[in-house]
Write a structure and sequence with these properties.
Elements lengths: L2 E5 L6 E3 L8 E4 L5 E6 L5 E5 L20 E5 L4 E7 L6 E5 L4 H4 L3 E4 L6 H10 L18 H14 L8 H12 L11 E3 L7 H7 L4 E6 L2 H5 L12 H14 L10 H23 L4 E5 H6 L1 H12 L25 H16 L9
Helix pairs in contact: 3-7, 4-5, 7-8, 8-11
C-alpha cells in the first residue's frame, strides 16, 4: 500500500514506496530548493511546504547534479530514503538506502585512553577525509556511539566477556544507522573516535572483521595527573565498572572512591592500555597502528603521513601541528611524589611504549 505526498505548488500526487515515518525535516533537491517535509500521520499524507530556512539540528543532503534525486534525513528511524524521479512516468519514488556488508565490515577505529590527546587524532583522520560520524563533540568524539558502547563496556566489565558475536547486531546496526543519516558518502572511509572503545576492542573486531585500529598513547604520568576521565569516575556506570575491573586486575581490595583522583586514573590507565596494546599488537601492523602523543606534538605531519600509509590513502598537508598547545604537554615536575606513585602502577606498561620517568622539562 502506498503513502502519498504532494509538493507545494504542484497539483499531482506522487506514490511513495518504502516510506518511513517522518518528522519535520529538510531536504535540498538538485535545483537547490530547500523543502521542509512536515509529516503528519493522519490519512498517511506527507504535506511539503517551502519555508526557505532549516532548523538548527536539521540536515540536508545535496542531490547529484542535473538530477531530481535527493534524500530525507529521518532521525526517528535513523535512516535515509532516496527520492528519484521515474523517467518513464515522471513520478517520484522513494526507496531505502543500503550499506553493503563489505563497507560495513571495515571501519577505521580511533581510540586512546581519555586525556591522551585523542581530539588531535580525530582531527588528523578528518583531514584525511575519514567520516567519523554526523555528530562530534568538542573533544571530537563520535557521540552517536556513546550509548551502545558505554552500555556494552559496562556489561562486559560487570558480567564478563560476552559470547562471541553476541553484540555484533547492536554494533553493526548502530554503524548502519549512522551511515544512513546523510553525511557519509559512498566510497568514503568511515569509522569513529571514542576513548571507551578500548574496553571492547575484541567485540568491535568481531562485529567488524576488517576494522583497522589507530591507538594514541601518552606518557602515563602526564595522562594520570590531568583531571579525571569518564572511566576513572565512580559516579558514572562505565567508570564504576572500569574501576572495579581495574582494581580487581591489580589485586587491590579497596574502595576506589577512597583514593585520590590520580590513583584512580592510574588504575584505569594501566588496565585499559595493557589490554588494548596486547590485543592490537596481536592483530598485526596491517590492522593496528600505535601512535605516541609526544611524537604527534613533535611532528604532526610525520604522524599524518604514517596514518595515510596505514590506511593506504594519499598523504595530505596537515594543519594539526599549528594548534597544539605545548604548555599542556607536561603535567608533572621532577621530584613530584604523585609522579612516582603513578609510575609505580603504570611503569611496566609505560616502558613497553618507550617511556621512562626521566624529567625532560
Amino acid at each position: 500500500m502506498f503513502s502519498f505526498f504532494t509538493i507545494f505548488g504542484k497539483r499531482n500526487w506522487f506514490p511513495v514506496q518504502d516510506c518511513v515515518k517522518l518528522r519535520t525535516e529538510v531536504v535540498r533537491v538538485s535545483r537547490g530548493t530547500r523543502w521542509r517535509f512536515d509529516a503528519g500521520l493522519q490519512s498517511d499524507l506527507l504535506t511539503a511546504t517551502q519555508p526557505g530556512t532549516t532548523g538548527d539540528d536539521m540536515d540536508f543532503f545535496p542531490a547529484p547534479p542535473n538530477s531530481h534525486e535527493c534524500s530525507l534525513f529521518t532521525p526517528d528511524e535513523n535512516s535515509v530514503t532516496w527520492v528519484g524521479s521515474d523517467p518513464r512516468t515522471g513520478r517520484i519514488v522513494m526507496r531505502s538506502t543500503k550499506v553493503s556488508a563489505t563497507i560495513l565490515s571495515q571501519p577505521v577505529v580511533a581510540t586512546g585512553r581519555g586525556g591522551s590527546g585523542t581530539r588531535l587524532l580525530s582531527m588528523l583522520l578528518q583531514e584525511h577525509g575519514v567520516f567519523l560520524g554526523n555528530r562530534l563533540n568538542g573533544s571530537e568524539d563520535s557521540i552517536e556511539w556513546i550509548g551502545v558502547q558505554y552500555e556494552s563496556a559496562a556489561r562486559k566489565l560487570t558480567d564478563g566477556a560476552p559470547e562471541r558475536g553476541c553484540w555484533n547486531e547492536a554494533l553493526s546496526g548502530c554503524a548502519e544507522k549512522i551511515l544512513k543519516r546523510g553525511r557519509w558518502k559512498e566510497g568514503q572511509l568511515w569509522g569513529w573516535k571514542l576513548p571507551e572503545t578500548m574496553l571492547i576492542l575484541p567485540e568491535v573486531v568481531q562485529a567488524f572483521p576488517n576494522a583497522r585500529i589507530v591507538h594514541l598513547v601518552r606518557h602515563p604520568v602526564d595522562t594520570c595527573l590531568r583531571s579525571t576521565h569518564v572511566t576513572s569516575r565512580t559516579d558514572i556506570p562505565v567508570g564504576a565498572a572500569t574501576l572495579h575491573a581495574a582494581y580487581s586486575w591489580l589485586g587491590w581490595r579497596r574502595d576506589p572512591g577512597n583514593d585520590d583522583d590520580y590513583i584512580r586514573n592510574a588504575a584505569s590507565w594501566v588496565f585499559q592500555v595493557q589490554g588494548a596494546i596486547q590485543f592490537g599488537r596481536e592483530l598485526g601492523s596491517s590492522r593496528y597502528l600505535e601512535i605516541r602523543f609526544e611524537d604527534l606534538c613533535a611532528d604532526a605531519q610525520a604522524v599524518s603521513d604514517a596514518i595515510a600509509r596505514f590506511l593506504d590513502i594519499p598523504e595530505t598537508e596537515s594543519a594539526v601541528g599549528g594548534i597544539i598547545d605545548s604548555t599542556r604537554r607536561r603535567y608533572w615536575a621532577e621530584g613530584d611524589k604523585r609522579a612516582l606513585e603513578v609510575w609505580s602502577i603504570c611503569g611496566e606498561i609505560g616502558k613497553t611504549l618507550g617511556y621512562d620517568l626521566k624529567w625532560t622539562g
